[in-house]
Specification:
Distance between the termini: 32 Å
Oligomer: single chain
Low-confidence stretches: 94-100, 201-205
Radius of gyration: 17 Å
Structural class: mainly alpha
Strand content: under 5%
Amino acid sequence: MLEKIIRDFMTIWTTIDPISNLALFAGLTAAMHHAERRRIAWRASLYAAIVLVVAVVIGQIVLDAMGIRLRSLQVAGGLILCVFGLQMVFGWIEQTGVSVDKGRDLAVFPMAVPAIAGPGAITAVILLTDNDVYSVHERAETAVVLLIVLALNYVLLLLSDAILRVIGRQGAAILTRVMGIILTALSVEFVLAGLQIGSWATPHR
């Protein structure tokens, strides 16, 4: 049980990627007053929580209605998470950046979607709450872990300026790349599970 909780936390943490989110939030809201920054952080976290909780509750139901087997999603989701992890490792997300139209609600785009509740996070929470693999109790634990990560992400958004002053943007970039490596490794596990390959690394005697 503890192993699953730790794995859930690491998977959700790396796909939501609070370190990159705080850097993006700090850049987008640098010219705003403190009160406005707090409102955007709260609304972005709330909207992202709604999207991800909906994915947990009905994500698999929608897939079943479309005739998509979860093992197919495991393989496809693992590949998506792998690409997402590689983007974090090589800094492709930082290079492309995010353009924001004037007058657009930053809490909705790009903060809630796709920064916090991106395709990687949505795929991850659906895979981690597979009805055919996990019990109701285990799925509830995953939902609690998700809410904890979102709460931590919200706190980091509020402390974004102070944290970046301490670790610097280079420090944030290093942490993002470390999380990207972990996410890439976890994505391989998703693909192997989808292909039902359990002992691929077992040495031959």
